[in-house]
Amino acid sequence: MTGIIIVGHGNLALDLVEVSERILGKQENLSAVSVQVGESDKILYQKLENIVEVMKTDDIMILSDIFGGSIANTCLYFAKLRGHVSVITGFNLPMLIKVLTYRDKVNLEELASLACESGKNGIIDACKTYDEKG
User: Fold this and answer.
1) What is the pLDDT of residues 31-90, one digit of tens each?
2) This model's pTM is above 0.90
3) Where along the chain do its domains lie?
4) Do residues 6 and 31 touch, judged by C-beta distance below 8 A?
5) Phi and psi dihedrals of 56, rounded to 5?
6) Distance CA 68, CA 56 (A)
7) Residues 54 and 30: beta-carbon distance below 8 Å
8) pLDDT, tens digit, for every residue of 111-124?
9) Domain 3-123 has CATH 1.10.1760.20
10) Nearest to 55 by CA among 82, 30, 20
11) CA-CA distances (angstroms) from residue 57 to 30, 41, 95, 96?
């Protein structure tokens, strides 16, 4: 089973984990990291290390909120140094539900592909779709 770490600004990651567990039930090897204003990259890196230490899994997927920011860059740095870590940015609830559902069925590379696909597919112009279906 792949361990999942959600990392985001403020309480976004905690809220996403809470909602996903309301839908799917309590999850093993799922953690949230909240990055507060003023926290350094070193603090985030240490939080990631601490979480991975207690997860009983070789592979880790980190879902980060925004590509290119300091959070995602720190996660990428962590992944490069540790190995067996995938970093996916731009997380949303459909992505997390898919990842949690399939993380014990596919390898890390396939899980990363599913995460990106389900994240994109979860974004829909609902008004346009509704108008087309009449």
Assistant:
1) 999 999 889 999 999 999 999 999 989 999 999 999 999 999 999 999 999 999 999 999
2) yes
3) 3-123
4) yes
5) -95, 65
6) 29
7) no
8) 999 999 999 999 99
9) no
10) 30
11) 11, 24, 20, 18
